[in-house]
Amino acid sequence: MRLMAYAAGRILIVDDDAALLKVMDIYLSRLGYRVDACRNAADAWALVEASPSLYAGALVDLNMPGMRGDELARRIMNCNASIRLVVMSGYPAGLSGANLYGNRVGYLTKPFAPRALAEAFK
């Protein structure tokens, strides 16, 4: 499958699974995004807090040790109202971005296909 550049911009991805984080980083980079990848919410929050308007999008795992992804997502949205925020989880149990945050947030259930990741930031 040939990858097409969908957009330019900076995306923050946050997941405590190092292997998945690497795959998402590579894929989004190939689509033309500049990617900052963090393995925990505290590091991600430090980046956002330092420069709230830097990111066009953020992809945040909901289930992480320390600060949970839903708390990080709330902080990011409060800091940058125009960000495209997508949350993801391997434990959906009826959750969705709409359930958590109204219509402002996208949602991906793990595992997801690379195409779903690309579509989330279109």
Q: Unreliable runs, pLDDT <50, ≥5 residues? A: 1-6
Q: How much of the sequence is in beta strands? A: 15-25%
Q: What is the C-alpha radius of gyration, as a whole number of Å?
A: 13 Å
| Distance between the amino and carboxyl termini | 18 Å
Structural class: alpha/beta
Estimate the global geometry from the Cα principal axes: globular
User: Overall pLDDT, averaged?
Assistant: 85
Biggest beta sheet attributes: 5 strands, parallel
Q: Order of helices and strands, N to C?
A: EHEHEHEHEH
Number of helices: 5
What topology, given as strand order, has the largest sheet? 2-1-3-4-5
Number of strands: 5
Helix content percent band: 25-40%
Provide structural commentary.
The protein is of the alpha/beta class and 122 residues long. Helices cover 38% and strands 23% of the residues. The protein has 5 helices and 5 strands; from the N terminus they run E-H-E-H-E-H-E-H-E-H. The protein has helices at 18-30, 41-50, 69-79, 97-101, 114-120; strands spanning 9-14, 33-38, 57-61, 84-89, 105-109. It has a 5-stranded parallel β-sheet, sandwiched between helices. Helix 2 packs parallel to helix 3. It starts with 8 loop residues before the first strand and ends with a helix. The model is unreliable at 1-6 (pLDDT under 50).
Helix/strand layout:
Elements (H helix, E strand, L loop, with lengths): L8 E6 L3 H13 L2 E6 L2 H10 L6 E5 L7 H11 L4 E6 L7 H5 L3 E5 L4 H7 L2
Parallel strand pairs: 1-2, 1-3, 3-4, 4-5
